[in-house]
């Protein structure tokens, strides 16, 4: 299965294993995923910046890094920080698709074939399939296009604001 990641300012398409079904999860075959021009594009751009620029913009991470250095020493902390800087980061948090599989023991409000939208950072990635908690999934009414429903998280953020 294909999934989109980013690293050091670059967007990367990778082949990854399909998600597996676990408790209270729904496997969704993605039809559309929405790209947030503000959140996602700025994350990609900032990932390619210099360490000094990142430090200025992410003071909380700097504080955590200092605490890590105090706790495990500078060499061990630098190894962990360096590894985090080169890891691929998944991206996406709003999509629409079709239920492909689900935890039948714990989920009865959805069924295979249902048209659904998913809003969830760390779940609704730009990927062919995702496994998400049922609490982040909503059925799409028949009169709503999947493409429109894929913006569910972006709409919810706007409403909250």
Structural class: alpha+beta
The poorly predicted ranges are none
Total helices: the number is 6
- Percentage of residues in DSSP E strands: 25-35%
- State the helicity in percent bands: 25-40%
| Radius of gyration computed on alpha carbons | 18 Å
Shape: elongated
Count of individual beta strands: 8
Q: CA-to-CA gap between the ends? A: 35 Å
Largest sheet descriptor: 5 strands, antiparallel
Strand order of the largest sheet: 7-3-5-6-8
Mean pLDDT: 83
H/E series = EEEHHHHEEEEEHH
Write a short abstract of this structure:
This protein has 161 residues and is α+β, with helices and mostly antiparallel strands. The protein has 6 helices and 8 strands.
Q: What's the SSE blueprint?
A:
Blueprint: E1 2-7, E2 10-15, E3 25-33, H1 39-47, H2 51-57, H3 59-72, H4 74-86, E4 89-90, E5 94-102, E6 115-119, E7 129-133, E8 137-139, H5 146-149, H6 152-160
Antiparallel strand pairs: 1-2, 1-4, 3-5, 3-7, 5-6, 6-8
Helix pairs in contact: 3-4
Give a description of the structure:
The chain has 6 helices and 8 strands. It has 161 residues and is of the alpha+beta class. The strands form 2 sheets. It has a 5-stranded antiparallel sheet. Strands 2-1-4 form a 3-stranded antiparallel sheet. β1 and β2 form a beta hairpin. It starts with a strand and ends with a helix. The model has no long low-confidence stretch (mean pLDDT 83).
Summary keywords:
161 residues, 3-stranded antiparallel beta sheet, 6 helices
């Amino acid at each position: 299965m294909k999934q989109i990641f980013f690293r050091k300012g670059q967007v990367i398409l990778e082949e990854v294993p399909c998600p597996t079904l676990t408790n209270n999860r729904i496997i969704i075959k993605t039809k559309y995923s929405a790209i947030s021009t503000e959140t996602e594009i700025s994350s990609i751009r900032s990932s390619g910046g210099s360490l000094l620029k990142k430090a200025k913009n992410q003071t909380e991470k700097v504080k955590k890094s200092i605490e890590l250095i105090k706790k495990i020493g500078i060499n061990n902390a630098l190894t962990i920080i360096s590894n985090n800087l080169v890891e691929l980061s998944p991206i996406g948090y709003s999509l629409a698709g079709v239920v492909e599989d689900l935890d039948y023991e714990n989920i009865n409000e959805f069924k295979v074939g249902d048209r659904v939208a998913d809003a969830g950072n760390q779940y609704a990635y730009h990927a062919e399939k995702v496994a998400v908690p049922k609490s982040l999934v909503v059925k799409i009414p028949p009169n709503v296009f999947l493409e429109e429903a894929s913006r569910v998280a972006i709409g919810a953020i706007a409403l909250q604001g």
